[in-house]
Amino acid sequence: MMQNYSSPVATARDYYNSPDADHFYHSIWGGEDIHIGLYEHDREPIVDASRRTVAHMADLLGEPEPEWRVLDLGAGYGGSARYLADNHGCRVTALNLSEVENERNRSINKARGLDSLIDVIDGSFESVP
Question: Is residue 128 part of a domain?
């Protein structure tokens, strides 16, 4: 089903669906987690700082329980959703506007046996389905 996106969302969607953006974020910038991080030093790899940031953000939730339903807006490749599902058993809905990122997210979830806990939804936070 084709959605009508606002101009800014359509622009962002086109960008994140592009092969160049997918290659950059997946292969160069860190892969699956948030692309910023809590760095311990200026030479620390992005992947390590990003993973630490996801763990810290999860800690801010308190003690996530398996019965929790979590909504991850702008989920990207789904690293935060997988962290919560894998470490806490939470069910997570991962909403993201890039079909390219969402397909990679679904593939990783399936490979890690987490697809029963994570629903990946194509869409925008402007209109949450």
Answer: no
CATH at residue 99:
3.40.50.150
Flag whether pLDDT at 2 surpasses 80: no
**Inside any domain, residue 116:** yes
Q: Is the pTM of this model over 0.85?
A: yes
Structural domain of residue 88, as residue ranges?
Answer: 7-122
Q: pLDDT (tens digit, 9 = 90+) per residue, 59-71? A: 999 999 999 999 9
Cα(85)–Cα(69) distance, integer angstroms:
10
The answer to whether residues 70 and 90 touch, using CB atoms and an 8 Å cutoff, is yes
| CA torsion, ordered 90, 94, 100, 104, to nearest 10 deg | 0
Distance CA 20, CA 96 (A): 18
